């Protein structure tokens, strides 16, 4: 009997405590809410603004309700952590195979702006044909900037890393040259500096004593002997509000670059909704089955505006970087 | 039964004859040439190798895998035979321990030769990431080196004390060093108890460490998306392969040491017979995993995999592939089933074939896979479609092999290759045994 009494008393105390806690929290919440409400009504300026909603209707809003949106400023792009990436962005690329005729302007531009002078370009345009009976097509490839990058997993020193804005970059000052990332990458996108790179003007400037500080955000400036290089999605251009070099160089509008969060991609001429584009044109990604989740999407080579044969003129089986005369 | 003095005279390390000097100096010459080649590689970069963006690993890596595999001999013969109470092991364990130590030390050096930026070696510790199989290697290789060293050193202590006495007049300098290294061993009951217990612990430790080492080595490959590497079979396949390479190396080295040191009375035909059976077991196990790795996948091979297998079975690598499989695995396992072939000389020849086969086998694991990526190889010079080691790579690799042999040679020169104390104890036991029986 006595036992029962104590337990019920304990229960009562327990309940009481909990109730008290809830009331306290609720009370604080209510006062906060109230203060907010009163503050707003106090600051009402009675000045109405006309705004257009996304579906096109005009509405009136009190001007005090209107706040400037937190949008991407140039500051944001310049003052971010190199390993974290540009905040609130997720860069993607769409490559429309129906438009590519192997003009190779993308590769030339990429080679030029990244000072690529080795034997293996970072941006390749592959001559593809799945089987004898299927149609051949040209397939430009960059680094896929996978969301589950195999290369980053195996790097022993965190020299190659994945950023929140989607980019997979390389810290050439840290890379130990084990080439495990190259072995791990299923897209064969990585390139090694087997010897001291001779990068023309860059090497010349460095020889003159000019100090060029290597940054993961501009790969190839300069390339470093015994380390790995690859396509970096040109964050140095993005920071200046420009598109990657391959996108602007392409005369056929093959490359679209953009932001997945904004659901927008552009090839410089037209700006499209990413989701709609992928939906309408059956976008896909390379080797989806591996589970690497690439950031580069492909549109299949259907309803082509160009002849495959036109591209053969530029195709070189054994060369991807033009050698200076 | 021989008395203790002849035993000591037979087993104490001896000075090299003419042949020994020639052997050692040729090893030194090979090593010096290799070091020069390596310095050249450091200056010019790995452009001096024939590795390129597709064949991004070459014989440095396959040679590394070979050394790691060979180091497994310590785990297999010493620890396993010890724990299973196989008493015939006494005269061969020390040689196995020596090979094991030499191989694992060289594995550590070889993997650094493959690093294009050895100057940034410390990054492996400063910026270590635990998810990378290379970090696992960074942890397990030094551990293996330490444990392999202890496995050699602890059983050696009583012998060092014996040698200290033995060389007292002959060579005071050597005697002093043996004395220092013997850690004041007197053979007291307590010392013996501590020693036995320590050896037991190390022998127990070296088995999981050996297995982990081989498996991590396999995972370096199987954690990539590459056709021919991305296989669940890889860990067990590497362990069984290491079993073959290790025992093969042991047979070969034992034959040479027995011949040079005239140890026929200690390392008898019985030992070769036993080792022969051991090697058959190793080869058959490895063959089993080879069938799992190459033959059975043919049934469900996808396009890329089929290209890879075709290249091995009938293509560019077929001659090497079948030489290694038939000459280094099938023939040894058949031939060694007959007693007549488990004699010293035939065993030496077979052991050599197995070791050479094991070396090339690693080459076949590393190279063909890299030359069959998922994407077509385009836009690179024609020479990048193939791989065969350059002169630099050969010179450096030969130097690493010579260095392993040099470590073995030096240890054999200064250490008793057959445990003196143990042999004496065992013979004493035999004698007592006979006395009680008669």
Task: Provide a descriptive summary of the structure in words.
The complex is a heterodimer of chains A (325) and B (438). By secondary structure, chain A is an alpha+beta fold. Chain A has helices spanning 2-43, 74-78, 105-113, 150-154, 180-184, 201-207, 235-239, 245-249, 274-280, 308-312, and strands at residues 48-52, 58-62, 91-96, 124-128, 137-141, 160-162, 168-170, 191-192, 228-229, 255-259, 264-266, 271-273, 296-299. Chain A has 10 helices and 13 strands. Chain A has a 5-stranded mixed β-sheet. Chain A has a two-stranded antiparallel ribbon with strand order 1-2. Chain B is mainly alpha-helical and 438 residues long. Chain B has helices at 4-11, 18-44, 59-70, 72-83, 90-114, 123-126, 133-153, 157-166, 172-181, 189-222, 234-261, 269-295, 303-313, 318-335, 344-370, 391-414, 420-437. In chain B, helix 3 runs antiparallel to helix 5 (90-114), helix 3 (59-70) packs across helix 11 and helix 14 (318-335) runs antiparallel to helix 15 (344-370). The mean pLDDT of chain B is 93. Chains A and B meet through strand 4, helix 4, helix 5 and strand 8 of A and helix 6 and helix 7 of B.
Based on the model shown, name its key terms.
heterodimer; A: 325 residues; alpha+beta; five-stranded mixed sheet; two-stranded antiparallel sheet; 10 helices; 29% helix; B: 438 residues; mainly alpha
Strand order, sheet with most strands of chain A? 12-11-10-3-13
Helix count from the secondary structure assignment of chain A: 10
C-alpha Rg of chain A, in Å? 28 Å
Work out the helicity level of chain A.
25-40%
Strand content of chain B is under 5%
Overall outline of chain B: globular
Give the CA-CA distance, first to last residue of chain B: 15 Å
Which assembly state applies to the chains in this document? heterodimer
Q: Over the alpha carbons, how many angstroms does the gyration radius of chain B reach?
A: 23 Å
SSE order of chain A, one letter for each helix or strand = HEEHEHEEHEEHEHEHHEEEHEH
- The 3D shape of chain A can be described as extended
Average pLDDT, all residues of chain A? 88
Beta strands of chain A, count: 13
């Amino acid at each position: 009997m006595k036992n029962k009494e104590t337990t019920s008393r304990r229960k009562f105390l327990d309940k009481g405590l909990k109730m008290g806690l809830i009331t306290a929290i609720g009370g604080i919440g209510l006062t906060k809410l109230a203060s907010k409400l009163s503050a707003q009504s106090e600051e009402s300026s009675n000045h109405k603004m006309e705004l257009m909603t996304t579906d096109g209707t005009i509405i009136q809003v009190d001007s005090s309700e209107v706040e400037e949106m937190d949008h991407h400023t140039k500051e944001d792009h310049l003052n971010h952590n190199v390993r974290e990436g540009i905040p609130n962005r997720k860069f993607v690329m769409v490559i429309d195979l129906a438009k590519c005729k192997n003009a190779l302007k993308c590769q030339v531009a990429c080679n030029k702006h990244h000072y690529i002078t080795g034997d293996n370009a970072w941006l390749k345009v592959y001559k593809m044909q799945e089987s004898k009976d299927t149609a051949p097509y040209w397939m430009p490839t960059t680094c896929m900037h996978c969301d589950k990058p195999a290369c980053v997993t195996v790097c022993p020193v965190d020299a190659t890393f994945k950023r929140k804005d989607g980019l997979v970059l390389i810290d050439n000052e840290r890379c130990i040259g084990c080439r495990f990332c190259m072995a791990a990458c299923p897209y064969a996108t990585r390139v090694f500096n087997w010897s001291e790179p001779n990068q023309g003007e860059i090497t010349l400037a460095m020889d003159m004593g000019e100090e060029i500080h290597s940054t993961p955000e501009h790969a190839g400036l300069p390339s470093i002997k015994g380390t790995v290089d690859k396509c970096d999605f040109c964050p140095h251009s993005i920071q200046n509000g420009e598109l990657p070099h391959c996108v602007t160089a392409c005369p056929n509008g093959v490359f679209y670059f953009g932001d997945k969060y904004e659901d927008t991609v552009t090839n410089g001429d037209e700006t499209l909704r990413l989701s709609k584009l992928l939906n309408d044109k059956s976008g896909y990604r390379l080797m989806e089955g591996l589970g690497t989740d690439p950031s580069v999407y492909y549109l299949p080579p259907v309803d082509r505006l160009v002849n495959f044969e036109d591209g053969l003129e530029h195709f070189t089986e054994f060369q991807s970087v033009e050698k200076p005369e | 039964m021989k008395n203790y003095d002849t035993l000591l005279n037979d087993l104490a390390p001896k000075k090299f004859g003419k042949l020994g000097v020639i052997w050692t100096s040729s090893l030194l010459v090979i090593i010096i040439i290799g070091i020069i080649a390596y310095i050249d590689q450091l200056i010019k970069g790995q452009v001096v190798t024939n590795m390129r963006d597709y064949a991004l690993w070459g014989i440095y890596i396959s040679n590394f895998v070979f050394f790691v595999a060979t180091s497994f001999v310590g785990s297999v013969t010493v620890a396993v035979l010890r724990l299973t109470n196989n008493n015939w092991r006494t005269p061969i364990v020390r040689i196995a321990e020596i090979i094991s130590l030499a191989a694992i030390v060289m594995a550590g050096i070889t993997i650094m030769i493959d690093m294009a930026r050895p100057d940034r070696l410390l990054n492996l510790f400063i910026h270590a990431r635990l998810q990378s199989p290379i970090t696992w290697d960074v942890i397990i290789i030094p551990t293996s080196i330490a444990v392999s060293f202890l496995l050699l050193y602890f059983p050696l202590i009583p012998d060092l004390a014996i040698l200290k006495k033995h060389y007292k007049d002959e060579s005071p300098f050597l005697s002093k060093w043996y004395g220092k290294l013997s850690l004041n061993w007197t053979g007291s009951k307590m010392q013996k108890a501590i020693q036995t217990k320590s050896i037991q612990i190390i022998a127990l430790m070296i088995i999981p460490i050996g297995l982990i080492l081989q498996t991590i080595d396999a995972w370096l490959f199987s954690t990539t998306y590459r056709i021919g590497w991305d296989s669940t079979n890889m860990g067990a396949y590497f362990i069984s392969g290491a079993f073959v390479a290790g025992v093969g190396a042991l047979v070969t080295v034992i034959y040479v040491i027995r011949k040079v040191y005239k140890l026929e009375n200690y390392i008898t035909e019985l030992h070769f017979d036993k080792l022969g059976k051991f090697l058959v077991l190793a080869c058959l196990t490895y063959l089993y995993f080879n069938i799992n790795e190459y033959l059975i996948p043919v049934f469900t091979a996808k396009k890329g995999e089929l290209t890879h297998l075709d290249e091995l079975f009938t293509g560019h690598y077929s001659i090497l592939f079948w030489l290694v499989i038939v000459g280094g695995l099938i023939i040894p396992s058949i031939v060694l089933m007959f007693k007549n072939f488990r004699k010293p000389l035939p065993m030496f020849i077979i052991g050599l074939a197995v070791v050479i086969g094991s070396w090339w086998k690693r080459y076949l694991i590393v190279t063909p896979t890299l030359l069959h990526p998922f994407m077509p190889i385009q836009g690179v010079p024609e020479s990048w479609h193939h791989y065969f080691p350059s002169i630099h790579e050969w010179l450096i690799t030969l130097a690493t092999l010579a260095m392993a042999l040099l470590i073995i040679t030096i240890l054999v020169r200064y250490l008793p290759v057959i445990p003196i104390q143990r042999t004496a104890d065992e013979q004493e036991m035999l004698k007592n045994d006979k006395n009680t029986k008669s």
